[in-house]
Amino acid sequence: MKRLLLLLTLCLLLPVPQEAAAKDTGRAMARLVKEFRHEEGFEMVDLGKLALSVMRAAARNSVETAGERETLAAFSGVTQLVIGSCDDCPETVRRAFSARVRKLLKHEEPILEARDQGDLLRIYATIPEEANELRDVIIFNESTGSVICAFGSIPMSFLERIASQK
Q: How many structural domains are present in the chain?
């Protein structure tokens, strides 16, 4: 989770905010993940508004520090979380899934690319010109065939505070 947050903070270093993934692309990605859910070894999690609300309520009871409260508040704008993973899939399924993901994202520009131990992680998001937030974030790791779609919004002020911490 910390790595994801740190990668998102790097988005702040971009000279000009740009729209990278349209809402339609994100919804199409979520449909693709759901389509692959029956493939051998494919793992999928789809948390809607109600499930996320219950998880936030449970997390509120265990929050101890101001930083934890701030993190919880920052992610209160996320309304749906869809995760798909090919970690345990046969190579043919992983290749097919990654090819379909690449096809969906071929016209989109990532807001961030990062390499970690040979894995290439690409992050796409909508950054409205007049808003101070990231919307509908898509994180794609082609090496593992994993996709995370976080629908809703995450305030840029939260990311700025993380970037300023050492």
A: 1
Q: How far apart are CA 8 and CA 148, in angstroms?
A: 13
State which residues form the domain around 103: 2-48+78-164
Written as one letter, the residue type at 125 is: A
Percent helix, percent strand, percent coil in the chain, to nearest 5 = 45, 25, 25
Q: For residue 23, is it within any domain?
A: yes
| 161 confidence band (pLDDT: 50, 70, 90) | confident
Q: How many residues does the chain have?
A: 166
Q: Report residue 132 as tokens.
A: 């101070």
Write out pLDDT tens, residues 81-126: 999 999 999 999 999 999 999 999 998 888 888 887 878 888 888 8
Q: Do the domain assignments include residue 16? A: yes
Whether 87 maps to a domain, the answer reads: yes
Among residues 12, 17, 7, the alpha carbon closest in space to that of 160 is found at 12
Q: Determine, yes or no, domain membership for 54.
A: no
Listed in sequence order, the residues at least 6 apart from 143 whose beta carbon sits closer than 8 Å to its beta carbon are 118, 119, 120
